[in-house]
Design goal:
Order of helices and strands: EEEEEEEHEEHHHHHHHHHH
Low-confidence stretches: 127-142, 144-148, 183-187, 248-260
Mean pLDDT: 78
Number of helices: 11
Strand order of the largest sheet: 1-2-7-6
Amino acid sequence: MAELHITVEEDSELGDDGYAVFRLLGQAGHQDRALRILVSRDGADGCLGPQGWGPRCYGFRPRNVQVSGNDLLLRVGPEIVNPVEEYTLVHVRIPPLTGEAMVRWPALQPTADIPRIEIEPDAWESDRFGDTPPAPLPAAPADAAAELPAPVAPEPEVVPEPEPEPEPEPAAAAPARPGEPRFTFGGGTTAEDDAAGAEQETVTEQAAAAPERRRVRLWLALLLMILMLLIGLGYHFADRWLERDEPVADDTLPAVEEEAEAPAIVEEPEAPDETDASAETADETTAPLTADQRLDEARAALARGDNEVAIRLLRENEREGHGASMAELAQLVDSIGFEPGLFSAPNDSEAVRLYGAACAAGDESAAVPLAALRDHLTVLAEQGDVAAQTIVGDAGRLPAALAACGL
């Protein structure tokens, strides 16, 4: 797969927090195409979607597309910035452009307000982006209907009339079954026939109701058995509870007479210790740690390998604008003398930003490592390093950081 050259930076035009800009180096000629952004990472559920990381990648539409020189700028919002953790190595694809870029995600500040986006069913990775529909079939020529022969009307089918069937002979009357009424020549029935019919109807109704009565008796018997089983279980468990709670008397032990209670001795309350009271007051009024104290605690945590505590304290000082802490963070991600520990890989763009912020906060000592990093990046840019050229260029972070440090 071809390689794209992409950098991700914080975007201040759309908002302070939760917005970023994807810079596609040398792709300025594609600003009129329907571009989408797919972000993925290694491991299970490594695809980014509207609800966060999952098994399928979603093609996000950029909020804004601009051209800057030969580069194409795609601006995105919290739907991409919030789920990706800082310094994560992610794969970025921009369909319909071919190629893929490996990007180390910068330290972007997420936002708590996540606007809802309309999910497009055809924007998932398994669907096609920008495919053209199949061409319609060519229309038939106008004179094609004239060349067709005229339809021939079918000849009427002659159906012969059916021959009349012979009349059936009258059947002999069958003997009446028991219970059925017997008809007389006068058209009525006798009283004996009526009584036999009523008796037969009663027997038929009783035979039809017999299965229903048997089902009712079976259900009643089953319910009675279940009730008796529940009662037996209740008696069983009640006996066990009573046996466990009943105290066991030991006849072998001699009875012990109760001794008369001794008069209670009332002790005089001791005078409160003024030293303890002053110590408790001092603990309650202990002031919170200052930024310098948090920096010392962070350095001690780094020394003992507690990276979680160290990054929390340094980030807290960075939010408060503590220059020495930002210079400390910059040296930890600076590629010059980088050692894996708090971070797994260097990030010169983030180091330049932190050095500039430290100088702006009044820490003049950050100018020395910034000058060394400037010389290092200049050499890499002259050798053709695209990332170094982006940082050193006029639109990169280095000119602003040098101005803040007076270099």
